[in-house]
Amino acid sequence: MYDRLRREVSYVQGLMEGANQESSHPEGKAIQRLLDIVDELLEANEQLEHRFLELEEYVESIDEDLNDMELLVYDDEDDDDEDDLCIVCPECGEDVHVDYEDVADSEIELLCPECHTVLIVEDASDLEPDNSGVDEERLD
């Protein structure tokens, strides 16, 4: 695209030089100055497009790195469920996860995310954290 535009500007500049309008008439001087401005704008636009492409590549690489980082962080969180208890809702069978610290030495009410049944867990200090998968805990 830029090559074609440069050829067009060069062609018009050649016509201006051939007609010798540049030095003899004010209109020729104005047209020559406009051609110089167009040439400068082409150069500036070409540089901006080049920088844009560089920035686009840089953003894509950052996005890939961020995706990798998210996978690492969220996968680690999923594997680090040692302090979670899994309670099975008696109504719908949905697994409800809760932090072991939240239910230790106190009574807690949980809301099943599936059927909205209120689940009450009393004094879970004697319960073990869920290290394996799904445990059915005492519900009152």
UniProtKB/TrEMBL annotation:
InterPro entries: CD1247_N. Residues 31-65 form a coiled coil. The keyword Coiled coil applies. Keywords: Coiled coil. It comes from the Bacteria. This is AraC family transcriptional regulator. It comes from Baia soyae.
